[in-house]
Write the structure tokens for this entry.
Amino acid sequence: MRLRVLCAVVALVSCKEAPARPAVRVAAASDLTVAFEAMRGGFEQQTGHPVDFVFGSSGQLSKQLVEGAPYDLFAAANQAFTDPPIAAGACSAETRAQYAEGQLVIFAPREKVAGLAELIEPRFQRIALANPELAPYGQAAKDALIRAGLWEALEPRLVYGQNVQQTFQLARSGNVEAALVSRSLAKEAVAVDPALYPPLKQSLVVCGGGKNPEGGRAFAAFVLSDEGRRVLAREGFGLPPKVAR
């Protein structure tokens, strides 16, 4: 009888499911919304790690990390925004890697436009860009307008989004006539001459504030893998040379 009870207890214990892994918390620039959501299924299937994304401006996410936000990975739209959390000890410099190069475009869904110079025309009464202080695409847009000699003339017409995703939605909804955003969000758009703005070297870094640093490293590896690079290219990102890791 005692043997039967012991066997039943052993069987009950062995049948208990292993504790669920905590989700990988990924802080990501808002231009990655479509690309990272497209990667979710493949990553979770391959690794068994569930993943949660928090999208926002690189500047806001960088500040959150410095202040102790519990993220396992930070994917910024420009490498410079990974510097503060690294300096604060929130993220590991050794894990930093460029995963893409961003491309700035003019998105004007209800108007035909061939280039920046046309934005001076009266039909473009409101032009949106992301906050240059927080969003790399906003800073790139400002740089492009300054170098094109258009900043002073267009500044009174500018409307600022908190991040590039919100900026894109302002044009998509018709609240502005045009927006300067990322190719990843507006594939049917007109490219801005890359010579007008510094390269957007989009970089990621593994961080230690979350509950699943192993998952953070795994997601970084997935983004940098052939499969991750295929998704990024498909969604409008330029790709840096592949580096063996």
About this structure: The domain at 104-196 is CATH 3.40.190.10 (D-Maltodextrin-Binding Protein; domain 2). The two ends are 58 Å apart (CA to CA). The beta strands are 24-29, 51-56, 73-75, 97-102, 104-107, 127-130, 158-161, 178-182, 190-191, 200-206. The chain has two domains: 23-101+200-234, 104-196.
